[in-house]
């Protein structure tokens, strides 16, 4: 299936009618719908999908650096590259590998331009899975095929669609330390569940692997489970910053919340031949039970 700009996309569907759409541009999940056809990810109404820069929203992959030397855009070149489908993905062995789910594997290898900017050879395999219960799982595997070690940062930059940011609470990060990007990356300790009354841009460090995003107006909870990703980035630009962003409509900040499973604070280092795996699953519960009822403390 092609999008409006002729860029190939893959659509996964489950028998219950849920779907996930992944664009070859950036291997970005551009849509995730539940079995009623309702969109669960935010995408900007002003989004322009024009290579090499993709639309705002969905779940872009941030890799391998903060600054992209090839363009002013931050958070790595992987999100603006054309990936390809692996028609012969490796066999599924474990539950972690999406056994029993529909999935697609996308691959990225650096081009000559990428190597000028970030001179390390890698192979990146992203597996996107859709489960029978509608949950989406993203599994990234990065292999060092270089002669020397290299280090990288990583994030699943998930733009969740919410009814109204003022009605949203994040549970599971209470007591975590965070770096506040709005305060020169100063370190603080969270005291409570997170609610939103102004711009938030934080990196929660070495945080629990299960967190919940409760949308009280929609009576919906996103449950996020991560593995191999120590940090969680929480970001909402609020009204002022939103007005300054050309690809977001005024007021659209109310309908979005970025919650990223990430390895940001301490880069991942891979020796030659080594492979790293980072996984994030997002499932939806159509209720806003508090965290203890959602088994947040219980790792899978
Ligand atoms: C967040 C960062 O993760 O992403 C913010 O913490 C940043 O500082 C934002 O502005 C940008 O998102 P995008 O999709 O434009 O890269």
Radius of gyration: 18 Å
The SSE order reads: EEEEEEHEEEEEEEEEEEEHEE
Rough outline: globular
Residues in β-strands, percent: 35-45%
Distance between the termini: 35 Å
DSSP strand count = 20
**Oligomerization category of the chains in this entry:** single chain
Give the cofactors and ligands: 6-O-phosphono-beta-D-glucopyranose
- What is the SS-derived class? mainly beta
Determine the number of helices (DSSP H or I, runs of at least 4 residues): 2
| Percent in helix | under 10%
* Poorly predicted regions: none
Main β-sheet, spatial strand arrangement: 5-6-7-8-20-17-16-11-14
**Main sheet attributes: strand count, strand direction, barrel closure:** 9 strands, antiparallel
**Could you tell me the mean pLDDT?**
90
Mind explaining what this structure looks like?
- By secondary structure, the chain is mostly beta strands.
- It has 2 helices and 20 strands.
- The structure holds 6-O-phosphono-beta-D-glucopyranose.
- The site of 6-O-phosphono-beta-D-glucopyranose has 10 residues, from strand 18 and strand 19.
